[in-house]
Amino acid sequence: MDTATPQPSSTSSAASSRLIGTPDAPLFVDVRKAEDFAASDYFIPGAIRWDYDAGDAAPDEIKGTTRAVAYCVKGLHVGITGAEKLRAHNLDAAYLEGGLRQWMETDAPRVKKRPGLGVTGESISHWVTRARPKIDRIACPWLVRRFIDPRAKFFYVPTSEVFAFAAANNAVAYDIPGAPIEHAGPPCSFDNFLRTFELTSPALERMAAIVRGADTDALNLAPQSAGLLAISLGFSKNIADDHAMLEAMMPVYDALYRWALDATDEQHNWTPA
Question: How far apart, in whole angstroms, are the C-alpha atoms of residue 53 and residue 148?
Fold first, then answer.
């Protein structure tokens, strides 16, 4: 009797890219060989790195998920083997058809590596900004966690302490004058995170306009900006702890992104009899 383990299933770039940034997204695991990973400037949004050839233990992140997609350069042996190794940890794991090469040939979002900002997909990035966040300083962490580094850690400190904290804790300052990522003219820090990491998609551009309108009091930029401003200020009044504020607002931005992705044409036009 043939008891061989069946080969993992595959998923396409088109099917997978639609899930990026949503609660339905699988955990993307970058299993490219070390030399291929080093030669590339990009990775799939939200991906974590696992060089199984180096004998590294499986990433801790797989313990908190049930679905994963392994990807290599071409979507062949390396990616298939990666999926098999993930399945050995009781994950529903598939491999990405065509690998990162095919992904890059489509309009699927991708993240530009920024080693100077601690973002390569290999390790946890650290970020610090001013205390009492309301809009941009919540929107940016949401973007980072959903698209750039799902393991990222964020810190909020008094304005006068931001740069000292960054230097002492190997963190990157943001949304404060002189930081690597800050307001630059009309664009807010959310816009500049998108630009820095070369993240582009119609849904993220819609999000950027809404965040910019709410954060800069340019409420004419998008009809939803006024609503985001009101919700953000209300949460800020209700929640005194900055990290609790971030956690509470994450589902708000998840919902706003899902609207920008899938529901912009939907109308609520029911009227009572």
Answer: 24
Token pair recorded at residue 27 = 């955990």
- Mean pLDDT for each 10-residue chunk of the chain (273 residues)? 67 92 91 96 95 80 84 95 91 95 93 96 94 98 96 97 98 97 91 96 96 96 97 98 98 97 87 75
pTM: 0.93
CB 114 within 8 A of CB 108: no
Question: Could you say which DSSP state residue 181 is in?
Answer: B
Q: 136: closest CA among 86, 210, 69, 36? A: 210
Q: Does residue 154 contact residue 127 with C-beta atoms inside 8 Å?
A: yes
DSSP string, 118-150: TBSSSS--EEEEESS--SHHHHHHHHIIIII-T
